[in-house]
Design a protein that fits this description.
With about 200 residues, the chain is mainly α. It is built from 8 helices and 3 strands, in the order αααβββααααα. Strands 1-3-2 form a 3-stranded mixed β-sheet, with helices on one face. Helix 5 runs antiparallel to helix 6 (about 120-160).
């Protein structure tokens, strides 16, 4: 249910926040200013990416097709990924991998409980429920962590993108919507699984 709510909240998020900035600041300019004012980050440009940017530790991959985009979504998301790339934000970067691994184990235990003998099935179902509870708690901590990082990204955006009051309100709304990303792991798991099985 959390995953469905998160998916609905983030439905077509790039299109919903596709507002050109009044300052007409492009992602490349925001990136350049961030490196000058805040901190040095290793950057690589890539042309086959679904999102404007992807954060790794002290390293960000930028979408070549979006680098000159001056919309609120592209700029805010790029700056969010720059903040996310900080070394201390390692948990937020890895939370999806942990969630997917626990979800996979949960599914395996559930399927085994249907296949194996009655004596084992109860133990396996309890194990699957325990993993689900752990995953929910992990998601809550991830959500809180994401909110803190997004709050910092908002402050950076307000500074570097010269946002007016309307744009700041939209950026705050975008910030809130992006925080729900951590609850989408079941959809992401099946998406990755199907893309692996059916390329």
């Amino acid at each position: 249910m959390l995953a469905i709510f998160a998916r609905i909240t983030r439905y077509k998020i790039a299109e919903r926040y596709d507002y050109p900035l009044g300052s007409m600041t492009s992602s490349s300019e925001a990136l350049e200013n961030y490196v000058k004012i805040y901190r040095q980050v290793n950057i690589k440009v890539h042309n086959v990416m679904p999102s404007p940017a992807i954060a790794e530790e002290e390293f960000v991959i930028i979408n070549r097709d979006k680098i000159y985009d001056s919309t609120l979504y592209t700029n805010f998301f790029t700056l969010f990924q720059l903040v996310l790339s900080k070394k201390e934000n390692g948990f937020a970067r890895k939370v999806f991998l942990i969630q997917n691994f626990l979800f996979f184990l949960q599914l395996v235990l559930f399927v085994l409980s249907l296949i194996l003998q009655i004596n084992w099935s109860n133990v396996l179902i309890i194990g699957a429920i325990a993993l689900q509870v752990i995953n929910i708690l992990l998601s809550i901590f991830g959500f809180i962590n994401y909110q803190e990082i997004l709050e910092e990204a908002f402050e950076v955006s307000a500074d570097l993108l010269d946002l007016d009051e309307v744009e700041q309100a939209r950026a705050e709304s975008l910030q809130n919507d992006l925080a729900y990303t951590v609850y989408e792991y079941p959809f992401e798991f099946f998406k990755r699984l199907f893309s692996f099985v059916i390329p």
